[in-house]
Sequence to fold (569 residues):
Amino acid sequence: MTAAGAPAPEGAPLGGAVAAEWRKLRTVRSTYGVLGAAFAFSLFTVLLALQLARTWDGLGPDDRALVAIRPVLELAGWVGGLCLAILGVLSVTSEYRTGMVRLSLVAVPHRGRFLAAKALVVGAVALAAGQVTTVGVFLATRPAVGDRPIADQRAAIVEELPGFAVSGLSVVAFALFGLGLGVLLRSAAGAIAGVVLVWHVLPVAVFQLPSPWDERAGSVMLSGLPAQISGRGAESSIYGELLPPVAASAVLAAYALVPLAAGTLALRRRDA
Amino acid sequence: MSEIGTGERRTGLPGGEAVTAHGPAADAAAAGAARAGGTWAGAIAAEWHKLRTVRSTAALAATIGAGFVLCLLWSLYASQYWDGLSAERRAKLTVAPPTQFLELILPVCGVVLGALTLTSEYATGMIRTTLTVLPRRLPLLVAKALAAAGGVFGAGLVALAAALVAGRAIAGGRPMPGFEGSLVEHLPHLVAVALTTAAITLMALGAAALLRSTAATITIGMGLMFVAPPVVRLLPAPWNDRIWWLLPTGFPNQIAPVPGSTAGDDGLPAPVAGALLVAYVAVMVGAGAYAFARRDA
Fold:
């Protein structure tokens, strides 16, 4: 905690910078705003799924075959990705807006360490929030679905868990992507617009391309990657399914790391 | 500003400085406003000047320009695709109109512009200077609304019209749906898209006056625009359709669909959609104006 108050000497461990970033993140109001939004939306998707499971009871066999609960559950992780990306953006741009970034860089002059601390803290929060919005939502819905043989709910919990956990990892990628974009643009408006572009506007635009480009470009959209990593395919979604799991994992990592690397370079070269 | 205005009074009582500091400056501002044709004209001129000279407007203009280029690429690709099709597949083909990408990008630009028009001044603290020059809240907000909505409407309409004309030139005589017909038939749809964008800009401005935060306003705007539609589709019938029709991003197709398209067929009648759009703007801007007038900066 000492590093938060006094300038850290060059070569000091990362711990102080991480502690400082953690304190900033947990004491600003916007953190609770975005996390609250992600959590509230997760709760809402659980309710929607419960309602859907109850509707299923009253349907005939043909209609029952059409009921799918998984797309409802996946909405929570999708919105969670947006919320945590905004958290990543705000963890940097709010300091630029108030000018506090100058003070932060006086305390932690090493740019790489400054950004690494932010990435660690934002990444850890996103990891937790991501698992809550994916695995958490899935586990919360399962008891209510009970032993109804709904088409996409027959697999055992253990079989389904890895897929949801991977979806949760895409939330981390979104958060780090937002952080990198925030460092590059130094503006909340620009970075949030950029995040929304990658999160939804681009996938929708790409989906309207004529084939085979819709499938090709749709396969590298961030939100479509978890399904390809766990080999689920992209049935009836706007994303593609051309990438093998390893390639999809690499693209997911690139979404998180390339903007961060570019941000580190920019941060080193520019003055605050 | 106070140092300039009170330069000759520096030798006087220290307490006198603060009291008289705003005198000459306020007089000059009032005189300036009077010269420009009163409070309203001066306020609008000032807001237009701000809008024109900030970097974010240039970024938004560049975004709209990029949307235009994407539209051109789309028209090129669609034309080539069309040439390779058999007659029966042509008959069944539904092509996105040449303005598709702009129609996707413009509402995003509207939300960002509407938010930044007000929140950027809160972020820098310049709102206090603005309110010192123009203490009446309502004319200020109206001037901001006119500058932002007018600017985005003009830019949007020009870009849409350019994309349509260029797309039709690229398509040549190919009878592709969405590209054919006379220009006059297409005009109502373009105006509807530009008007909806201006309305979204105004709603964002109203939200900005309530929230006074760039991040919160843009996030909530984007959330309503992009998260609401898929969630609404999942609601139990008949509420999925009923609420779906109330979402403003679908209004252009309900007010004036693309000639030859069936996109707005089961939606609201055009006058109802138009009236709803006006009502949304009135509610959001009204709530924003109320908060703006009641709170201190």
